[in-house]
Design a protein that fits this description.
Radius of gyration: 34 Å
Helix content: 25-40%
Number of strands: 21
Number of helices: 12
Largest sheet: 5 strands, antiparallel
Length: 532
């Protein structure tokens, strides 16, 4: 019987070099309701994700791994546990898809598709079944070492593994590092003829000596010393004369493993770079979420104070604005939270792949790394490629939840007296009404103010400033701004010097789209340089 509890009590001190395979919980996608219920708890500073703790426990059976297999998402499970999980998920899918024996996402000729119990990613099981999923020999060896250390650490006598079914001649006094068997004195004497590496139980031995066992063939129980390039798997000597007789074989396991290591080592820096960028993006989302919440609270307070002075006559408008602010802020928070969780999921995926890949590079032997069939490299490359295609810019502006209050115009229509300030400089644009910019000639621009949804922002609470400044020394020219209806503005500039300039267009101190813009001012009868 596996002894998971005993191992958990001693794993921190005895298994510091074991593979890092934690349980990972995927971010929740409950939407905005959870955020609205307690927004304060949701807006927290992003903390650096800690490296996972040591774990040799299967997530499905909560016991030490038995014949661990690594899925394409780089999570490991016992072979028997995977077999049960595949059957359970297949039965559930068949009950949902009546009259169909195939997964709707499954291609004909391929194995069944299951969702990884840890990360929920879809994983295709080989046509041959769970037995063809790559074995993690390194993890299996770590489990055996943990079992040895757990038994030796106990004060109770350890039974002999050889004669345990018959007449026991006494407790185990030795251990075979080659077979991983505990043996009594008589079994030890007989086993010496095999010339295996034997140790006494009271002997202190390094971990490297305990991990001397070599991966063996599941069919012939012999050491895996060849690589079948046709089947992409490790094989033993007997396999070369049976199932893999006419296949292309390779005996240079070291060169194959070196190639796998080189591929992973080459991709790791890119993965680390993407993780760093995602971390910055997550922090940016958290910062904007906090600002949106602060602006929302400030706007609510301002609304309450203003409508308190207007008393009962303005109660209906106050409630309307409060609802509008809440709904608007909630919609923005929802979008930012969804983007933040996407960044965190990608960051966690790449971190997990990087950790597993790093462990493979540092600890796996040639046979162990080849047995994984380049899974760490493929998953790491896919995760990095997917993350690189995602824009890391925040999906919303931060300065978007404010309220314009005009208490001196309360006799006007309430709908015009108060409104939500949701203009977004990042979604406002400008264009030129002049074909060229010439010294002494008016240069005309048009600016369109839009809110965060890309719609017209017709209110007059925007401070639009346009400055044409020469690059280097010299003072800039401030444009003459005229406001029109529906958030449109016209600007007139009169350049006083020629050469390269920068056109800065800001709304309430923030640049709009394509600002600052490089602009070349010509003298009369001067051609514009080609580089501009």
């Amino acid at each position: 019987m596996k002894r998971a509890n005993q191992f958990e009590a001693t794993s921190s001190s005895t298994m510091q070099d074991a593979p890092l395979l934690p349980k990972r919980s995927r971010p929740s996608h409950d939407g905005a309701e959870g955020f609205s219920a307690d927004c304060t708890q949701q807006i927290e500073c992003h903390k650096e994700i800690k490296k996972p703790e040591v774990s040799l426990i299967c997530r499905l059976c909560s016991q030490l791994y038995t014949d661990p297999r690594m899925l394409s998402c780089l999570h490991c499970f016992c072979r028997e546990c995977l077999h049960k999980e595949v059957g359970s998920q297949s039965a559930l899918k068949e009950s949902r898809v009546k009259g169909s024996q195939l997964n709707p996402q499954q291609d004909k000729g391929a194995g069944p598709i299951m969702n990884c119990p840890t990360c929920q990613k879809p994983v295709t099981i080989p046509v041959g079944g769970v037995k063809d999923i790559p074995q993690d020999f390194h993890l299996d060896n770590e489990v055996k070492i943990a079992q040895y250390q757990s038994k030796v650490a106990r004060k109770d006598a350890v039974p002999c593994d050889i004669c345990i079914g018959g007449t026991s001649l006494g407790p185990a006094v030795g251990f075979c590092c080659s077979c991983h068997h505990f043996m009594c004195q008589q079994c030890c004497d007989h086993h010496k003829l095999a010339q295996h590496d034997m140790i006494a139980l009271d002997e202190t031995v390094p971990k490297e000596r305990l991990s001397a066992v070599k991966p063996t063939c599941a069919l012939h129980s012999k050491e895996l010393v060849f690589y079948c390039e046709t089947c992409c798997c490790l094989i033993c000597h007997d396999c070369t004369t049976s199932d893999h007789k006419d296949h292309k074989q390779n005996t240079t396991l070291q060169s194959i493993a070196s190639s796998c290591r080189a591929d992973i080592r080459k991709l790791l820096p890119s993965a680390q770079e993407v993780v760093s960028k995602l971390a910055v993006a997550v922090n940016g989302n958290v910062k904007i979420l906090k600002e949106v919440k602060e602006n929302e609270m400030a706007a609510i307070q301002s609304i309450k104070q203003t409508f308190y002075q207007l008393r009962q006559a303005l109660d209906s408008k106050r409630n309307e604005l409060l609802s509008e602010v809440h709904a608007f802020a909630l919609s923005k928070q929802t979008a930012l939270i969804k983007q933040k969780k996407t960044f965190e999921t990608q960051m966690h995926d790449i971190s997990h792949c990087s950790d597993v890949a790093s462990t493979v590079l540092q600890k796996y032997t040639d046979c162990e790394i080849i047995a994984l069939k380049k899974l760490p490299y493929a998953e790491l490359r896919g995760s990095v490629s997917k993350a690189q295609r995602v824009s890391l810019e925040p999906c919303e502006c931060s300065d978007i939840v404010k309220v314009a209050l005009r208490t001196d115009s309360y006799q006007n229509s309430l709908s015009k007296m108060c409104h939500l300030i949701d203009f977004c400089p990042g979604k406002s644009a400008w264009n030129s009404a002049s074909s060229s910019c010439i010294v002494g000639s008016p240069f005309m621009l048009r600016v369109k103010a839009n809110n965060s949804n890309g719609q017209d922002y017709p209110y007059d609470d925007i401070q639009l400033k346009v400055v044409l400044k020469p690059q280097g020394a010299g003072s800039g020219v401030v444009g003459n701004v005229v406001q029109h209806r529906n958030g449109e503005y016209s600007i007139s500039l009169n350049p006083v010097s020629s050469g390269p300039h920068l056109l800065n267009i800001t709304m309430n101190g923030q640049h709009i789209q394509k600002s600052p813009q490089q602009l070349y001012v010509k003298d009369k009868f001067e051609y514009e340089p080609e580089e501009f």
